[in-house]
Amino acid sequence: MIVSLLNGKKVRVRLVRQDDMESLYDYLQLLSPESRSRFGPHPFDLGTVHAIFDQPDSTIQRYVAIDATENNIIAYMLISQGMIGADQQRYSERNQYFDPATTVTFAPSVADAWQSSGLGTAMANIIEEDLRKKNIRHVILWGGVQATNFKALNYYTKLGYRYIDSFWFDDKDNHDMMKELRPMESISTNLVDKQ
Predict the structure, then answer these.
(1) What percentage of the chain reaches a pLDDT higher than 70?
(2) Residue 42, helix vs strand vs coil
(3) What is the pLDDT, as a whole number, of residue 185?
């Protein structure tokens, strides 16, 4: 799907393809140290990128945004079915349980030069539309979000995520956040009601 951003640029959002391996590796290498420290679903090395393409995990969907003019990856977001182990353990310790069939874990990243362009929001909206079609009801942030990452906290709040609880990890305070997706039929009903 092609989307127009706030800066007038056009990008294509789609699932990762086999021919994206080199571009994904380049994308990960170009993330700033700060962005790397805030995105942690997997290492950034070449071996990990090869494994992503050589041994794909059917429980993970990988979305990319492609800059229409440069034809390179400018955002990379993962959706994992259910909850990852550490997240599930934290939530269960708080007596919070989610059906793995209707719950996913979300890990977004956007290239430094494209942050605050509207790309993250546009891409999240596309992903959420796909998730609603699959009857997903809950989206959990993968590993939470660092409490000092104010830009990300504002982004998630704007997208409709709510704070669940805090936890200490890697010598940092972190927040678990979750979004409840409204079913497709309730969105259609609201659109009809407004007309």
Answers:
(1) 94
(2) coil
(3) 59
Containing structural domain, residue 114: 2-194
Q: Taking all residues of the chain, what is their mean pLDDT, rounded to a whole number?
A: 91
* Residues 77-85, mean pLDDT to the nearest whole number: 96
Q: 20: left (phi > 0), else alpha (psi -120 to 50), else beta?
A: alpha
Angle at CA 64, nearest 5°, toward 58 and 67?
A: 160
- Cα gap 188→165, rounded to integer Å: 32
pTM metric for this prediction: 0.89
Domains held by the chain: number = 1
CATH number, residue 109: 3.40.630.30
Nearest to 149 by CA among 139, 137, 138, 161: 161
> How many Cβ atoms from other residues are within 10 Å of residue 44's Cβ?
14
CB atoms within 10 A of CB 171: 5
